[in-house]
Amino acid sequence: MDRDFSKELNYRTARSGGPGGQNVNKVESAVTAIWNVAESTFFSHEEKEMIAVKLRNRISQEGLLQITASESRTQIQNKKIATERTIEMVNRCLIKAKPRKATKPSKRQVEKRIKAKKQISEKKENRRFRI
Length: 131
Fold this sequence. Notes:
Blueprint: E1 10-14, E2 30-36, H1 45-54, E3 64-69, H2 75-93, H3 107-127
Antiparallel strand pairs: 1-2, 2-3
């Protein structure tokens, strides 16, 4: 169910640290992928709400989701990484968790547990010093 909305992403570049030697000081290789959640035409209103709730700590007050990548030495590679991360993160938000069904232990399991507790209790009781 991977949905590719990469056409809605905007990119911003910056200088990044990490590998690259002197190249790092002059080339803007870090890439930030910026996506406006509310203005997206790719997702329905309900899906946008799910994304906004699940990524509320990552979405700014302006409604922008920003993911930065600066692992690679090249801007192109970092752009690809940032795009993949954004798409993966949003697609993970759209997966609905299955509701948990409450279960209870069987009578046999309850009896077995109580029997084991009684045995341990007896063992400890037998260790006591009696006069």
